[in-house]
Amino acid sequence: MPRRLEGDFDYIIVGAGTAGCIMANRLSADPKKRVLLLEAGGKDNWIWFHIPVGYLFAIGNPRSDWMFKTEAEPGLNGRALAYPRGKVIGGSSAINAMISMRGQAADYDHWRQLGLTGWSYSDVLPAFRRLEDHFLGESEHHGVGGGWRIEAPRLSWQILDAVGDAAEEMGIKRIPDFNTGDNEGTSYFHVNQKRGRRWSSARGFLKPVLNRSNLRLETDVLVDRLVIESGRAAGVLFRQGNETVEARARGEVILCAGSIGTTQVLQRSGIGPSEWLSPLGIDIVLDVQGIGHNLQDHLQQRAIYKVSGVRTLNETYYNLVRRGLMGLDYAFRRRGPLTMAPSQLGIFTRSDATRSRANIQFHVQPLSLDKFGDPLHRFPAITVSACNLQPSSRGTVRIKSSAPDDKPSIAPNYLSTDDDRQVAADAIRTTRRLMKQKALEKYHPEEFLPGPSVGDDDASLAKAAGDIGTTIFHPVGTAKMGTANDPMAVVDERLRFYGLHGLRIADASVMPTITSGNTNTPTAMIAEKAAAMILQDAR
Asked: What's the whole-model pTM score?
């Protein structure tokens, strides 16, 4: 028999990641409501959760990363990819790129066109603004005083300035801010940092309220499944050490474990496609086809160019004197390369003239490596990654067994559609055209990846995209929001679970279609809106 956690809770939140921290903050604001927050990872008491370049040490480390891998992907010529997800309070916001990016107004207007009332850009903008403490100050686009600190980057690179100049020569305008509804243009990314330190969701929303007597945080717990009674989510079962513990909810259970974790919990609970779960010996509670389908992600083609006559992080890192100066710059001024997000310069543009809006995003970095976790190259180089913002490929997440510690099967199905293969080819062509602009001539850019031997025809470039393509860590959509007549919808427009009372989902898994940019900030917005709806519905 499981041990019963004392008392009943008004709300049980599964996952203390980006969404869960915000949810806990908002729901515990009423001292009459008891809130339980469950996190599989631990506390963020490791220096590399706070120094921005710590992602280099956190990604691929079992202390901070779930260490998932995809299945071998046919579209990637049989390669399997590491699939990092944060395993700590703050979740992926504790190990991610720190890039503050909402996407495009058209993304949310499309959600409204799908029948999802309350999700147009004008509807979600107030939630974005409430979250923010933006360095640009209060405006029609931004807010101040919120828990989500956003600042300008604290360093610059001559080579990145030149790439921005090259984009201008191609007709891509410079813009001061990607987050005004239309991100087409080139600029430096704004980042979730405060004075040179990473600003995760845990730092902004959870830690300031942990002293509330009605909020209980349990870390190092693995949620096994939901407790379901009479058509209602009545609580959860979780493992803590060698013990199985039951917690009961008199109000709602809210899943905030992300597109992978939320899917696993539901499927282990007997909720999902019956043809997947029955062979695993799991009793079917609800046959919900949408749970684990509709996985979307941004695939990037990581082109690398050697350069000369200009500084990059590669040779700076291997110079012991300069490496020491980087450390001193950070220690005394909180500036320099140790404050770097993985990407600094962004470019949003169209892969071809027929596109109605920007459909590819460049992340430009003053460094190069074979993959995250590998050492930097020893030659001066930059990485110019282009990703498809609106992919049409759809994948799956499904558990392999009922064991909570068994990793799931993740199959993003990259480059499985003709359009995605065409966009990938056109993105590499756009990269090559960018690097041939006059503004970059004096740095003598030399293509290292995919390499000059790769032809410029569609077939060669599509194969090259499969060879060099990698995830940009944006899985969404595996428990999508939709109308009641959508057979693949899992939650309604108020994020209430179809077919079960007392259960909501409030994380990136509910996105019906992926947003056009980095997905952490949209996930925060979803949690902010969800919390407001939960409180409104409880009146």
From this structure: 0.98
